[in-house]
Amino acid sequence: MRNIVYFFGQLLFIPHVILFLFSKNKEAIVKDIYARKNFNPSMAHQMFDLSKELLINKYFRTLFYHRTNGVFAKFLRVFYPKASSFIIDVNTPIGGGLQLAHPYSTILNAEKIGEHVYVNHLVTLGEKNGKKPTIEDGVELHAHCMVIGGVTIGRNAKIGAGAVVVKDVPENAIAVGNPAKIIQK
């Protein structure tokens, strides 16, 4: 029964599939769909999984609209709204494979976000004095952490729950606390 509901629900997202097919960010969107899986499916399977994600995951829909920003995407948002509690700044470039773990009340306003970054709920990436953070590849941002200002979070670094980062974090480090301190490299 669930599969029948998914099938008919997915038919509503055919305009999104068309938008995907003409998108410049097709590769990044595919990486987003399969961020938690090591899988390289056929094009037909990609479109099926894309429409399913758009149907059941409003956070993914928000990321999809960010990647396909244009007049047609803005038109589709009227009928298929994005998550109002998940905000991505229009000027924030995001690498493929962004893993969204229910990013309720999350704000992504960064200079750059790399590939295969994990984002949990209540995460804030924000600017201070006109400077925004840079998040490198493979970073994990856990619940309720904040990264503020022109800092750089190095590759594969982990920012712990509730951490407030105002200084650079090197590669492969773990930062926790308020203000954040490096506890492991």
UniProtKB/TrEMBL annotation:
UniProt cross-references to Pfam families, sorted A to Z: Hexapep (PF00132)
InterPro entries (UniProt xref): Hexapep (IPR001451), Trimer_LpxA-like_sf (IPR011004)
Keywords for the protein's UniProt record, in alphabetical order: Membrane, Transmembrane, Transmembrane helix
Transmembrane segments: 6-23
Secretion signal, residue range per the UniProt entry: none
PANTHER family, alphabetized: SERINE ACETYLTRANSFERASE
The protein's name: Serine acetyltransferase
Organism: Cloacibacterium rupense
Lineage: Bacteria, Pseudomonadati, Bacteroidota, Flavobacteriia, Flavobacteriales
